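RESIDUES AND SHAPES:
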Amino acid sequence: MSIAVEEKRSRRLSRVRVWMRSLLSAAAFAALPAYAVAPAQVPLAIDGNAWEGWGSAVAVDGDTAVVTSTLARVDGNDGYGAAYVYVRSGDGWVRQARLVAADPEAFTNYGRAVAIAGDTIVVGAANADGVQDATGAAYVYTRSGTTWTQTAKFSASDGEGFSDFGMAVALSGDTIAVGAPSTFIGGENVQGAVYVFVRSGATWTQQAKLVASDGAAFHNLGSAVSIDGDTIVAGAHQAEGNGTSFAGAAYVFVRSGSAWSEQAKLVAGDAGFSDEFGISVALDGDRALIGSRGADVGAASDQGAAYAFVRSGSAWTQEAKLVAADGAAGDLFGVAVALDGDTALVGAPLSGALSGVDLDRGAIYAFSRSTGTWTQTSHITAVDFAQGDQFGTALGLSGTTVAAGAPRAKVGENTEAGKAYALTLGVAELAVAPAALDFGDVATGTTPARTVAVRNTGTADMFLGQLLFIDADAASFSLANDTCSGQRIASGASCSADVRFAPAAIAGYAAKLVVPGSAGVAFVDLSGNGVPPPPQIAIEPGSVSATLAQGASTNEIVAVRHIGTSGTLNWQVTQQAGRPAGVHRTLGRATVPRATADLSHVDTTRFARSQATSGRRTPAMPNGVPPVAHTLTHSASNDIVSGNSIACADNTTGFTNANQYLRTFTLADFGIDGPLSVTNVTFAVENLTVAATIAVNLYTVSGDLQYTNMTRIGTATVALDPQNATLVTVPVAATVPADATLVAEIAVPDLGDDGGVFYFGTNPDGQTAPSYIASPLCGATDPTDLADIGFANMQLVLFVSGTTPAPPVDCTLPAWLPVSPTSGAVAPGTAQPMSLSLNTAGLAAGTYAANVCVASNATDPFVVVPVTLEVTANGPGLATASTIDFGGIAPGHRVVRRATLRSSGTSALDVTAVSTPVAPFTRTGGSCPGTPFTLAPQQSCEVEFTLQPTAVGTVEATVTIASTAVTGPATITLRGAGIGASEAIFRNGFEPQGD
């Protein structure tokens, strides 16, 4: 079954209650530290190794919690399994003991299940040896003081190999219930059973074996079990329910004396095929909570649900169906449940849908019951969550204390080491950052802004009131982009607001920003100084140009004007290099970050290949794409080859699942030594059959190419209609640090529900770095090199465009451009003249350029006045380019360039001959007539040349232009290179390929 994952959308509350206790008393509440880990949620210290999966089972009772790993290394031995016991100490938790089997063996599934009551813990080991090999066993430990001791090990009296005895355990007082879901009953394979053991003194004996009255093969009774006093509820998640096969059921058994009998069979009122109702169960008194992780909610398949039942006498009725307010397809809400009084918890380990951000981070949903109605009260995520943690896989609840497991969490460099947390329900924690904002000196008439972030670091939802300002200067501050006021902030979520400061006078200002909410009130101290606005400079005119004959001179006057209202404008001409004036283009080699995806988990049989519909196509660049400073590409061409792409897909329908396609770009390898401002990303589409919204994500990566090492720096979406063989350009803004490696990701949603496919545009023409794919449904949870899984010829057409600061302005004043005066002081509203003397004495005919750079104390402290001097010959003159660079061109392609011939003298110019360049250069036309021809003074025409290389390598030719110019014949050097498939195809940015 395809699992579609939709992006979560926040919901605004129509009504918000706000507690404003002691709002005006600054002493009542202090601003909380920025994003501190609140005592309400504490990660438990676990010394886990990679792949141990700590947190796959948890339990809690009062001030004691226990966390297990079935693959924990014990005394240097892999796969023995262990359990850690923690006790509460103040606001934290400390480890009290490590529990292991007295007769340890590798891979017995020790720790598959765990339960605690008071000073007794039971640990299930579903593959341990009992009366037969691999029957499964349960280990019992008791505490004396602070010491835990194994006091019993037992298994089913009629145990069979591989019956999974210990897959689930439950404990209440002196009674233990153990699930054995793979037990044969008569001739019924994997019908399942629950075994009951009771303690007398220090001895445990089997009291009963419970089976379902309508049990059948593969029902798996005992896959989950819970006990309270004389009542047991056991899940059979593949049983028939309401006449629907594999819908799942739960059975209630009660004890009278020492005899147990079946009291009820619980099924969902809206049972559906493969809902897996009964995959988790919880019991408290006369209430039961049953998880159904495969339940569909509307059109969202496998979103999951939990069902609450209540007992009256001996009759059980469904009280409520619990679903997540922000649930989505594939969340598996209901994998774990917990119940204590009027509080219910449900785990959704696959909650989170943004690849590279929160995909499968997991969440816990808390519900409260009041007057017979269950209401969601909290959406809880781990305070240090990361993608793929699967937080909420295991749950335990005791009062307001919760134990939660995240078995897929990465710890340091240890993949899937696992984590566990102790939480306190019902506590929202308000954190505001920063605690104070000092705007410093701000000119009157300006309004700078600073951002304040508000975060809920607790485990209950937090409700915020209207953010406001108090104290004497409150009117000088205002809010913008406020996403906090009146909002409900879930556990672990945050919001922000921009504080603007607008001083009206020259004075000091102070106020407080008040952040009120259900978790208290925080105050942010605000301060700033109003200062006079700085001088304002304008130079008129902004540029100077002149045309002079050789030996002539002229003076041009510019005015340095103070257009501000205060202060004295102090200025001077500087010849120091100034700020950038333009951009440059660079492309180059490639460094490859190490991809460490576990290829053993990748199911290549799930990858479907695109169907060939035509041959090769070279799509045109999208219209209206402006020239850019840098185009980063690893592709030798932009061609799209039909039938040359793959995607993770449903093997039955062929519709594609969610897939992410990635490229990496190390800036230094592209000759970029400054920060890159990304402007857009372009990617190729081989085939899209339905309308879809595609996400473009930009990251930086530190270390191996894994999502946990990636930081998202920019994102954008584009809505696409069905199309094929196209290039799509998406504007997306991000700044990449100079020494960083950029990762560009194209995230395509699951198209199964829409009955569509998406295949990325590729070709086999060569690349300078790998192409990557990620698709959790096919086992590729991290970026995976396509070549490593057998698709080396599928090279993604994907490139990134952006700009960087250009080289500084050259402020050197040449001898032909004296300036006077070179400094001055100007009052507001007045101007000072500056004379530019242009002198062509000793200059050859041609064009000269320089910059007059003026530094000042103005708001814009650096102004550049470009100066252009055209020197004409005394007689005929010829001006033209000295060199034409064709760049790199693939053999077989051709590029056209033109040279302008201009009559730059004081009399007409006769052009008598233009030589023919050697192959592979040719002269192909232009606006110049055939020789001889005449150009009047300042008249021009163009000569056209073409380069079509036949091989790889550098080529060069010289063209001579004979004329009556006083400077003699002119020469133009033609340069270019034939490049191979292993090089970046466009060395100077993307340009038309010609033929």
Notes: Residues 86 and 95 are 4 Å apart (CA to CA).
